[in-house]
Design brief:
By secondary structure, this protein is of the alpha/beta class. 26% of the residues lie in helices and 27% in strands. It starts with a strand and ends with a strand.
């Protein structure tokens, strides 16, 4: 069928809205009419080439929509169901088989490499108006489009009364931050937890820590307006990362002035990770939920980490199992514990540039494109 999508022709090319031809869903795929899609920094990292993914392509990986047609072997959803889309995974490796699909051994291939399934392989899936192939299947979905063919593993069925615009971003950034705290760190109420980088991942980590009732929640960022926002969302202390003595400032308010017990680094910046490591107490745990892209080494020594008895964790997508975790977060939102509507702003799909600008200047943390 013909539809429209934002196409990236090559590295550093602009997003261009154009007519494309979408193939029929294979047995393990689902055709959806896209309602909305959050914009995530990962889409921009593909555009800039920081995260390798073949061109020309369509991105978009926080989609929501309504199922129009389901492939023969699909059991998760059926025609007419509302879905929130999340990351793809292989279903076959150890982590997938044991309930940790975000740790899938094929994560890169099935999310960035556009591999649709072992049966179908890396078929492009879309073609442009000139007939040339376009890679779809970004995170199993490529939902910067009016319609998308989505891998079954990327689909999460949600109730018919779900707000598909507000909740669209649950599938990536928001579950990443929330999952880091709720699924992995599980901080005690009387513990200290710090977060650096207050984008969508950082805010959702903050909301999760607040939900758990953590007594001391510290936020570190370089943007003063974001530090104000952090206070509104429950941070008990905020610090400007540009202060030369920020590490000492944070340690000064922690037990024995030794640093925090838990740290969630969300910015992906190496200097921020280095500072986060220094702000983490001995016996404490530092978790990277953001990344500078492939090939970058951690900025601390093995010896120093050993004598500090610190734990360093890398965690993808908050160790979420989307069919369980996304409905859980939707319930938290409905109960008022996860007010993600306060950090997002919806834009008509043809206002992509405006949406990106609003994200860059801090006017909104999570822009959402609406395609209907
Ligand atoms: Zn797997
Ligand atoms: Zn993302």
């Amino acid at each position: 069928m013909k539809t429209h999508a934002y196409v990236l022709a090559e590295k550093d090319a602009p997003f261009v809205w154009q007519e494309v031809e979408l193939h029929d869903p294979e047995d393990n795929e689902v055709l959806i009419e896209v309602v909305a899609c959050g914009i995530c920094h990962t889409d921009l990292a593909v555009q800039s080439g920081a995260f390798p993914s073949p061109f020309p392509n369509v991105t978009g990986h926080e989609g929501s929509g309504v199922v129009m047609k389901a492939g023969k072997s699909v059991t998760r959803v059926k025609e007419g169901d509302k879905v929130l889309c999340s990351f793809n995974h292989c279903s076959e490796c150890g982590p997938c088989q044991t309930g940790h699909p975000a740790a899938c051994e094929g994560f890169g291939a099935v999310n960035f490499g556009r591999l649709r399934s072992s049966a179908v392989g890396q078929k492009p899936g879309l073609s442009g108006s000139n007939g040339g192939d376009l890679y779809g299947a970004f995170f199993g979905q490529s939902t910067f489009a009016k319609h998308a063919v989505v891998m079954e593993n990327s689909c999460v069925k949600v109730p018919d009364d779900t707000d598909l615009i507000t909740l669209a971003p649950l599938g990536c950034g928001l579950q990443t931050g929330a999952g880091s705290v709720l699924n992995k760190l599980k901080p005690e109420k009387d513990s200290t937890l710090a977060i650096s980088g207050l984008g969508a991942v950082g805010v959702s980590a903050l909301l999760a820590a607040k939900y758990l009732g953590v007594q001391t929640i510290i936020v570190v960022d370089v943007v003063p307006a974001k530090l104000e926002l952090a206070k509104q969302f429950g941070a008990t202390h905020v610090f400007n990362a540009r202060d030369a003595d920020v590490v000492d400032q944070v340690k000064a308010i922690t037990p024995y002035k030794g640093g925090v017990k838990y740290f969630v680094e969300c910015s992906g910046s190496v200097p921020a990770l280095k500072a986060a490591w220094a702000m983490t107490a001995n016996m404490g745990t530092l978790l990277s939920a953001g990344t500078p892209g492939p090939g970058v080494q951690p900025p601390f020594g093995v010896f120093e980490n050993l004598v500090g008895c610190k734990t360093y964790i890398g965690l993808c997508e908050g160790d979420s199992n989307p069919p369980e975790f996304i409905p859980f977060l939707a319930k938290l939102y409905a109960d008022g514990h996860f007010p993600i509507d306060k950090i997002s702003k919806a834009f008509p799909y043809d206002k992509l540039e405006e949406a990106l600008h609003a994200m860059h200047v801090g006017e909104t943390i999570k822009p959402i494109l609406v395609f209907t």
